[in-house]
Amino acid sequence: MTSIHIRRFLVGVISVSSIALYSYHGAAQSFTGGYNFALPAIDTFAVAFLPSFPQRAISSQEFVTSGAGGHFVARGEPIRFFGTNCVADGAFPPPQNVWFIAGRLRKMGYNLVRMHHLDNGWTSTGSLFGNMPDTRHLNPANLDRLERFLAELKTNGIYADINLHVGRTFTKADGVPDADSLKDFAKGYTFFDPLLIALQKEYARQLLTHVNPYTGLPLVADPVMAMVEITNENSLYALWRNDKLKPYAAGGILPVRHQRLLDSLWGGYLVQRYGTTDALASAWNAGAMDAGMELTTNGSFESEPFPGMWTLEQHSPAAATATRVVGNVYDGVLAVRINVSTSTGTDWHLQWKHTGLSITTDTTYIITFAARADSVRKVTLSITKDVSPYTWYAGTDCQLDTTWRLFTLGFRAAATSMHDVRLSFSVGAAKGVYWLDAVSMRRAANTGLLTGESLEHTPRRISVAECAGFTDGRVRDMTGFYMALQSEFYAAMKSFLVDSLGVHVPIVGTNWNFGTPDLAVQSGLDYMDNHAYWDHPNFPNIPWSATDWTIMNQPMVQNTDGGTIGPLMGGDPILGKPYTISEYNHPFPNRYQSEGPLLLTAYAAFHAADGIMFFDYNGGTDWTSDFVDSYFDMHRNTVQMALMPGLASAFRHGLISPATQTLTLQLTDDDVLLAPKRDGGSWAGTNIVPGTLPLIHAVRTESFHAPVSNLSSLPSAGAAPYVSDTKELTWDPRGVFTVSAPGFSAATGLSQNLAGADAGALTIVLSSEHATITWLALDGKALVDSRRSLLTVATRVQNTAMLWDGTATIHNNWGTAPTLVFPLQAALRFRVRADSLRLTPLTLLGGAGTGSRVVFPSGANTFTVSIDQSADKTPWYGVEPMGSGVAAGVERSTGTPSTFGLEQNYPNPFNPTTTIGYTIAGTGHEALGTSRVKLAVYDLLGREVALLVNEPKAPGEYSVRFDGSTFGSGVYYYRLETGGSVATRPMVLLK
After folding, report:
1. Which domains does the chain have, with CATH numbers?
2. Per-residue pLDDT tens over the stretch 522-559
3. What is the per-residue pLDDT for 329?
4. H or E element in which residue 153 lies
5. 3-class DSSP state for residue 226?
6. Model confidence at 918, in pLDDT bands (50, 70, 90)?
7. Helices 472-495 and 194-209, interaxial angle, to 10°?
8. If you write DSSP's letter for every residue of 406-435 in order, what string do you get?
């Protein structure tokens, strides 16, 4: 989890007239009329309408290994992991609870639990170091809790992903002299500090070789351990990119000891690589050149006219003023002061911008500026086109405080744009005061070895932002140095785990992959891992504040760049290695969060991922309360948990097909080593391929040392909607995603986009709210032939009396128990070979509840089913087709199909009128005369609400208009009867 994982802040048939009463309102957050569906904590029972995950203990022959095909195997067979995370306190449950925790995990479909933050001492139990004077001795009581939990998981056939370094806070009692100066669990330092490396090995030995009294085995010899993670979200390269590998006084993270150690290692790296200063100079000075002329006008704000080329762009109701001030400036006499009086929370709603600039393709530019603020605040620097389509070229976020700081951004232009480029500072995220000075933009110099630098006088380590101003030779070595430190650490740790401790399951390094250098390092381990979140909480001022946080509260399915899927799947998987996503969530209280589990499951299956682990199941001590008290905990979140059994079955049993085409990336050494120079330190530049390409094909990196890169020759993703090459997945950024697999259909999206969404055997006719709907065959057959299936309908959840402040935060107003689920009203069309269909609302345990109803076909093998969760009060429905149905495409009729027809009304849906066409044709004596014809409209209760035709008709084609202006929105049926022939079709009135 990025940064500290702070856990606690408090700590049937429906009537036509009722359907679609809930209209879509983008600003509405809290809802009324919700129903409670508190999934029991104690639930280990198998039931007919949930997929079966039988209890079967992991045997001694079921060690997980990496197979020859680049996927995990156990007992010689491929294995896929549908997993979750138990975090900190959640990994040390009370002994009396472990049987039902493990049993419920199994029932919900999980076969892997990632044991995360085992080493974090800030939880209520203290994790593995609780109540110990140092972090070199494990707490026996907590170790016992962990091992009892692991034993119970093993009994239930659930594997464990064991994390080593995650949240350990080293102390002086550990023998670490500057322990109190190490930031963020010592991330970064752990790669090159010999003392910290020795302590990591000591901890691994203690944890992995201790004999579990409940299994009689240490983890190194126990097949319950499926994989080992060396360090969580830890990257020296990422810290360099974020300009943190410098002393405290300069805004970095390095105490004096680590600053000297890192500089010493850098000097040794260069000596080993070049041997002499002449060789170093020759390599670094190749291509050196001077900087270009200044491109901005009055970037010091000292000259007239003011503001000149500078303007303050304001998007109402955001408001600010920009003035020049004297005193406490960075340079000269004047600086610009921007006072934000009204903020919308969106940074670009207020921009101080310089327009009229030009850039040239493949030219590198350096931007510098000085800034401060009245408190800790963020300013976003962007280089974009100043006219539509406002193309983004480069940018970065800069953290300001009350002292003047100089910031630098280097970037290489990807296009030529003359006199229509803006340099802008976005300040609209929060009210307050910002000062800017000394703004400069120039064509970058290319500097090699600086005056006074030599192998005897170690060259300084340059920042990523400076890379644009240095030669390729120097940048290659700077990137290569940080990569080498990481690679050497991982090689040493893996050797220790395997050769000294006897670990023989797959080992991964970490899960922070910020561009090709990180990927190249991680490719040296046994498998690849990654993390992603959509709409992770943002903390604009105080990290992990309980009250000062916001979310976008937007759906990912409307993202035009593929959301999280591009960064997760666009080259991070490596050809020939297993791939996992060990953290993923669309965190609470995002109102669209039900889309997250479906999107990840579907695309992970499409990309043949070997494991997914949602973050998280539980990170606290409460296993039973009906209350969501965390952004991430899912075990009490009904709309996410209800989706798990169906998604687990679809993923583990391969119901969603893998891609038919895998694009393999050939990357050169310079694609890796010059990455920080080519993308200018921008995080957006860490994506290897366009984010929409992995929506269509699988993408895996094959080489980091290819003679020629093939990135420029990759196929285009084309225009939306993005349809996978299997034709099973469709992402339409207008707001809908569907899965159309033989045994699994699903859709998620906004209400207005879900209407008419085609998901193979399932069509969403009407939906009153954003929803995620999945339909799973439970008998191994295709849905059209299945005799037993599970329908899951998930919307959104809230706590009782949860209080929103606008649309972006609830601060710490989390409300109270019980949780409430928004009741969806929908019409769904199933295509099943059957004469009738029984729909049964399910109970909290997944068994058959009350309100079962039989639905008759509206066409050949077609059933339109109405869902009203305000009446059914469940997200789960059992579906049982009965009878054999009729051949596909044949109108269900007791007459002769060729002599009789009822057309689908047009338009459909309609408001308020529609036209219905029908054909009357006779055979024999009927062809010579007339037949009495009745055409009537019925509601969902089967009541006749309108009689359109009731008279004799001669053979021929007819049409009739139906006016629904006096009827409520909903699904209706119209039925044609003549002689011995009958036909029925549904129609939707949508007001």
Report:
1. 80-246+487-660 (3.20.20.80), 310-443 (2.60.120.260), 897-989 (2.60.40.1930)
2. 999 999 999 999 999 999 888 899 999 999 999 999 99
3. 96
4. helix 140-155
5. strand
6. confident
7. 30
8. EEEEEEE-SS-EEEEEEEEEE-TTSSEEEE
pLDDT at 439 over 60: yes
893 against 68, higher pLDDT: 68
The residues, any chain, with a CB within 8 Å of residue 474's CB and separated by 6 or more, are 284, 447, 448, 449, 459, 462
Quote the pLDDT of residue 682: 55
3-state secondary structure 784-845: CCCCCEEEEEECCEEEECCCCECCCECCCCCCEEEEEECCCEEEEEEECCCCEEEEEEECCC
Query: What does the alpha-carbon distance between residue 506 and residue 528 come to, in Å, rounded to a whole number?
Result: 10
Q: What is the percentage of the chain residues whose pLDDT exceeds 70?
A: 94
Q: What is the DSSP letter of 63?
A: -
The values of phi and psi at residue 98, to 5°, are -65, -30
pLDDT at res. 932 = 85
pLDDT at residue 926 is higher than 50: no
DSSP three-state, residue 924: helix
Are residues 789 and 879 in contact, defined by beta-carbon separation less than 8 angstroms? Answer: yes
Nearest to 405, CA basis, from 575, 243, 532, 271? 243
pLDDT of residue 891: 35
Instruction: Give the DSSP letter string of 590-641.
Output: -TTTTHHHHHHHHHHHHTT-SEEEEEEEE-SS-SS-S---SSS--TT-HHHH
**Looking at per-residue confidence, does 211 or 938 come out higher?**
211
Neighbours of 196 (CB within 10 A): 21
Phi-psi region of 942 (alpha: psi -120 to 50; beta: other; left: phi over 0): left
Q: Burial of 864 by CB count in 10 Å (0-12 exposed, 13-18 middle, 19+ buried)? A: buried
Do 864 and 872 form a contact (C-beta atoms < 8 A)?
no
Neighbours of 294 (CB within 10 A): 12
**Does residue 392 have a pLDDT over 60?**
yes
Reported for 123-131, long-range contacts at CB under 8 A and 24+ positions apart, including other chains, are 123/7, 123/88, 123/89, 124/89, 124/620, 124/621, 125/88, 125/89, 125/92, 125/621, 127/88, 127/89, 127/91, 127/92, 127/167, 128/207, 129/168
Query: Please, which pLDDT band fits residue 677 given cuts at 50, 70 and 90?
Result: confident
Rounded alpha-carbon distances, angstroms, from residue 159 to 147, 231, 599, 643:
13, 19, 24, 21
Q: In what side-by-side order are the strands of the sheet with 853-855?
A: 722-723, 729-732, 736-741, 744-749, 771-777, 789-794, 876-882, 836-841, 853-855
Taking residues 312-331, what's their average pLDDT? 96
**Spatial distance between the Cα atoms of 564 and 566, rounded to a whole number of angstroms:** 6
Q: C-alpha distances in angstroms, 720 versus 37, 334, 560, 716? A: 37, 49, 8, 12
State the distance between the two ends of the chain, measured CA to CA, in whole angstroms.
45
Is residue 114 helix, strand or coil? strand
d(Cα 958, Cα 530) in Å, to the nearest integer?
A: 61
How crowded is residue 326: how many other Cβ atoms within 10 Å of its Cβ?
A: 9
What pTM does this model have?
Answer: 0.83
Name residue 294's beta-bridge partners. Answer: 442
- Among residues 230, 210, 231, 232, the alpha carbon closest in space to that of 222 is found at 210
DSSP state of 247: B
Per-residue pLDDT at 899: 56
Put residue 735 in one of left, alpha, beta given phi > 0 → left and psi -120 to 50 → alpha. left
Is the Cβ–Cβ distance between 226 and 64 less than 8 Å? Answer: yes
For helices 256-274 and 472-495, angle between their N-to-C axes, nearest 10 degrees: 110
d(CA 956, CA 918): 9
pLDDT of residue 985: 83
Q: What are phi and psi of 72, to 5 degrees?
A: -70, 145
> Other C-beta atoms within 10 Å of 231: how many?
26
Measured CA to CA, the distance from residue 652 to residue 113 in angstroms comes to 15
HEC per residue, 528-540? EEEEEECCCCECC
